[in-house]
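S.,

Sequence below, as promised.
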Amino acid sequence: MHNFVKTILSALRAFLWWNHLAPPVLAVFYFFLWHESIAFGPFLLPLGLFLLSFAGSAAFGYWVNDWMDITADRLAGKPNAVANMRPWQRIGVTLILQALGWLPWLYLPATYQTLGLLVALYTALVVYAVPPYRFKDRAILGIVCDLCYGHLIPVFIALAAFSQLLGAKVAHAGPLLWIIAIILSLKGMRNILEHQIKDRKNDALAGIYTFVQQTGALRSAAILSYILLPLEAVLLSVLCLMLGSALCWSLLLFYAIYAWLLSRWGYFKGSPKRWLFRLWYVPNDFYEAWLPITLLILAAIQQPVNGILLLAHLVIFPGTLQVPLWLLKELRDVWHQRTN
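The prediction came back faster than expected:
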């Protein structure tokens, strides 16, 4: 039983999706707390149920992907936790994850919007990995599918659910939704291209035909560095301007701190290719750490009880403090250099 549980936890890879995909989704809830000046207390149960549904769908995606990748991983020499499980065990885990993903919506607002988005989410998760569709082997279709289930649809489910739960009405909602959709699409394309560039040798061994395999690593890196990343940064700035000066100043502070840190680490020395590669990861630190904390701080200023939620977030996502800790370390080093 102990080995079986370890196998399941390894296959679900909770650390990956919890730390990287959950914070941007939670940021939607934090935004509405701030925008509507609401205390989180009455909404603790729906928030918990929403996270349960999110966890079920995210784990289902990784689970199905590993199940369908047993042969490809064996060819590439990669470990696959699902490979050693019996068929009934695989089916049982699949059914449990489906239940976790869907049952919370017996309480959550099951509107045409939310249910339609949930169907789209699970459809994307299935067609990405499962034959005969298996979009992950089909270059552009793989990128579109990945950005939909990993970035775009979960955030829009959160927007649809929490806006109704909290009775939120945002000015210029239509243009904002379009900008958010484009930003999330760029974020998804950037992340999947980075992953495919890093994993291109294993993909070649496994016979997986990704966009990077088709286009080439150098050209894909150029698309990422010179098109996707700048466009994402510009649109993110536009979004923060539309949402208010507080978020705009927060974004500028984030850019300033990161630019100084990269300068301290020597990333701007040498060829641009070296420091452009490091910039691929910078927006992720904003979405996954800086933005949720900014929104929680703003919400706590309006409703001090939201400070409890801020502390809980820091405990659950300790990586949130990574950028401030880097900053403190570099400031300490500068102080020591000047005083010694």
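Residues 217-243 form the longest helix (27 residues).

Coffee later?
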